[in-house]
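Summary for the funding panel

The consortium committed to producing paired sequence-structure records for every protein in the target list. Below we show the first two records in order, beginning with the earlier of the two.
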Amino acid sequence: MAISVELIKKLREATGSGILDVREALENSEGDFDKAVDYLRQKGLAKAAKRSDRDASEGIIELYSHGDGRVGVMVEVNCETDFVARSEEFREFAHEVALQIAAAAPKWVKADQIPEDVIEHEKEIARARYKEEGKPDNIIEKILEGMVEKFKSESCLLEQTYIRNEDLTIQELLHEKIASIGENIVIRRFERWERGESID
């Protein structure tokens, strides 16, 4: 099947992928643009998984202030080389992560950082509420499983839905950047402050 230059150009602009990858994706999807995008995303996730164990100690500390100084964010995003750390694409990604933190107020980077006692506390509150409502114990335990997953998806940066695209989580956005940039990238840590939050 002949793939038009216009379609190749459009897909390259949309995904940031190389010309050979774009052509392969379009050929595999028989010229279907959306299927080609999915193909490239899957390929990117596979590449990202291979790079995830490589050391990432370069990078940037991104600072962001929102709402005329109402919310402040500091986030450390690491990569493998100083060359990538200085690139516009990497810096834009770090800025997007800071915006996400400011807007969605996560508490942890990933789910395994949540202390077990925090999860147990959330479960106890919910369990007491559902018991009061008269729900049976076996139903309560099933509800609690879903509640814990929801809590993680709201509280953990990597599991949150990306504020600019509801079809992506931050984890998926990160994997796309790893595939696009070609280096391992790690969102190491962050702090978020909101004016007046520590005042009783």
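The next record, for a separate protein in the list, is shown here:
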Amino acid sequence: MLLLKRGGKALLQLRQIYKVFNEGTPDEKIALDHVNLDLKQGDFVTVIGSNGAGKSTLMSVISGKIFPDLGVVKVDGKNVTQVSEHRRASLIGRVFQDPMAGTAPSMTIEENMAIAYGRMKKRGMALGVSKKKRSFFKETLENLHLGLENRLEAKVGLLSGGERQALSLLMATFTEPKILLLDEHTAALDPSRAELVTQLTKEIVEKYGLTTLMVTHNMQQALDLGNRLIMMDQGQVIFEAEEQEKEALSVDKLLAEFQRIRGEKMSSDKAILI
């Protein structure tokens, strides 16, 4: 992969994204309310907000897991609004909160990596593992410093949660996606493993200049990573901080900003305040 410089054209463009669930029923919920967002090449944007703010729905719309009711999604200038998740796989890498997601537990490390590698190809998924691929997989795994390069034939289901998330992160990035989506990818890990995966995330994103959108409940993590930060509430982007402003922020200042905008305190859920 080539190191990409930050700036230039927008690799991700969201225009007036609107999504409602259970429309016309007592359970109607506006998940995204005319959201606009641009990510330029090399941007690393962190997204915070309380439960139900629309963060995960935003990620699902970008990945193609769900389609918006209104609005346009563009990746690298291409309109992908109605393009299926499978067809966007070569453009978008995604790591989920659940360490069990994103990998096939009954398959080996190298078989999982071969499937991810196949997403770069125009025809199907190259499941076979050649000597050349195996060498590439080993070299790539060495960057994790977890010894997984010596366990290529181990079943992924036998790995720890942290190891699986590290592998998922690697698999989502070595296919050179236009956009990397990190959906609370450290939330289910114990503190030491979460710290490890967070550090790996920082290193990999910086090394390859990946254009990244990361959802997190951990406000300090959102401040520590990336060059931009956005805050969501009730399906809207209510606050955005560019790099210089973000560097001056703290958790207390973010909470105060939410109260200033909404006229009330943010949820006291401890997971939000870490």
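Regarding this second record: Residues 122-126, 269-274 have pLDDT under 50 and may be disordered. Strands lie at 10-21, 29-40, 44-48, 70-75, 78-79, 92-95, 179-183, 212-215, 228-233, 236-241.
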